[in-house]
Design goal:
about 350 residues, seven-stranded mixed beta sheet
Length: about 350
């Protein structure tokens, strides 16, 4: 079986091998033939060590495909079904799930420490317990979410992470108010989805902030009312809000420096929504006086901050109704053998989302 493998954390390229085998199939498991997968920035963050992940591993967690086989005890799924791969399934029984915060369930994270692939040289992990840069993957049944026949695999893959994360940040976590002002710092696939979410919620001004000109231009087509480079954000704040700051600012980069900029760009009493996944040793500094005096709400948003399955259904309904544009978020397409080209497209910012067709 063919798969793209990172041998050691810190390497910047993947090796596409044909001697990989998906393992672990049995009761409660599902075997999936991956048809399409997106390249998410979290994959790159795991490769460079920002996000913890044992190596060697197969990146990829934003995928969709066809179910090949189901293990004993699996209900509601059958061979031939089309499925979206959920990298953060809810167990339904932990305290977070019982509180209705299924996106905070840790059961899925435990899968990241269990190898689900092997090669002649030893075991191989799948990123976030999945690993979709491969032809086949074995996952827990809860990771396989059925999708309707009219949803293409590439669209379903986007919904599996980036779209759900960005839309949910605006709709669930921040709950953007109609008529408000919004700034989104970082306009890749997740940032563009946050822009679309803010537009759906009726934001009056949506300023997209990104250093890459092509991403700024794209943001305007997805609902941003203005797009600026990082150096122009202060001027936009002055012009649009008379210097007060934006009602909502979304940080979609995952760096303390941009989070600090986002905090300073948020008005007193406004909302800073932290969406980007950052490193454990990258610390955001706030002094106790400003924290008290500014009364700014700081809201982290994990995977869109809501029930994941409901978020998938909402995204599909909005896409069907033409309320969100998912097709045009896919700006590049490659084959699995061209995966390193996709990585370069992400690192240079030339792609909003690259779809790997498998």
């Amino acid at each position: 079986m063919r798969a793209a493998v990172l041998h050691e954390t810190g390497q910047d390229k993947l090796e596409v091998l044909d001697d990989v085998e998906a393992m672990g199939f049995g009761p409660g498991k599902v075997r999936i033939r991956v048809r399409a997968t997106g390249l998410c920035h979290s994959d790159v963050s795991a490769m460079n060590g920002v996000l913890p992940q044992p190596a060697p591993f197969i990146p990829g967690h934003e995928g969709a495909g066809e179910i090949l086989d189901v293990g004993d005890g699996v209900t509601g799924l059958a061979p031939g079904d089309r499925a979206l791969i959920c990298w953060l399934p809810a167990c339904g029984t932990c305290p977070a799930c019982k509180r209705g915060q299924t996106h905070l369930c840790l059961a899925g994270f435990l899968n990241a420490g269990t190898p689900n692939f092997k090669r002649p040289g030893g075991d191989v992990f799948g990123f976030a317990g999945t690993g979709t840069f491969t032809e086949e993957v074995v996952v827990d049944a809860g990771c396989a979410v059925p999708i309707p026949d009219d949803v293409p695999f590439d669209i379903a893959a986007l919904i599996g992470c980036g779209v759900t994360t960005g839309l949910g940040a605006a709709i669930n976590t921040a709950d953007v108010r109609a008529g408000s002002s919004v700034a989104v710092i970082g306009c890749g696939g997740v940032g563009i989805s946050a822009i679309q979410g803010a537009r759906l919620k009726g934001a009056a001004q949506i300023v997209a902030v990104d250093p890459v000109a092509s991403r700024r231009e794209a943001a305007l087509t997805f609902g941003a009312t203005e797009a600026v480079g990082p150096g122009e954000l202060a001027d936009a704040k002055q012009r649009i809000t008379a210097g007060e700051g934006f009602d909502y600012v979304f940080e979609v980069v995952g760096k303390s420096a941009t989070a600090r900029t986002a905090y300073e760009t948020t008005r007193r009493g406004g909302t800073l929504c932290v969406v980007g996944a950052g490193a454990m040793d990258d610390h955001l500094q706030l002094n106790m006086f400003e924290l008290f005096f500014d009364e700014k709400r700081i809201l982290p948003s994990m995977y869109g901050g809501g029930d994941v399955l409901q978020s998938y259904e909402r995204a599909i309904a909005l896409w069907r109704a033409g309320r969100i544009d998912l097709e045009n978020m896919i700006t590049h397409r490659v084959r699995l053998t061209e995966i390193n080209e996709a990585l370069e497209q992400m690192r240079t910012g030339t792609a909003l989302r690259t779809c790997i067709e498998i």
